[in-house]
Amino acid sequence: MLAHRAIGEPTFRHHLFEVPKLSEFFGISIYMYWDDHGPPHFHAYYAEYQASISIPDLTLFRGGLPPRALGLVMEWAAIHRAELRSAWDRAKKNEPPGTIAPLE
Description:
The chain has helices at 67-79, 81-92, and strands spanning 13-14, 17-18, 21-25, 28-31, 41-46, 49-54, 60-64. By secondary structure, it is an alpha+beta fold. A hairpin with a 5-residue loop joins strand 6 (49-54) and strand 7. The longest helix has 13 residues, at 67-79.
């Protein structure tokens, strides 16, 4: 799922690849860059807020989200942690990371 640009979301051309949107729920968009640095993580965007979340321990290590949005992201990530690890591994190989079901 590739997305259109919204306020606060990343530029969608990142080197030679489109930036894949892994999931979207309750106005929150989740992305993973193809050639991002470690530790394994994903990016969450909500309105003008953005945050980077570590996959191994589900900690916020950069940026921030409003408490309710952060709680929803953490709940979603806990449910889909294995899928997030697999997506990270695929992205590191320059393979499409795929999509992950939204929080319902």
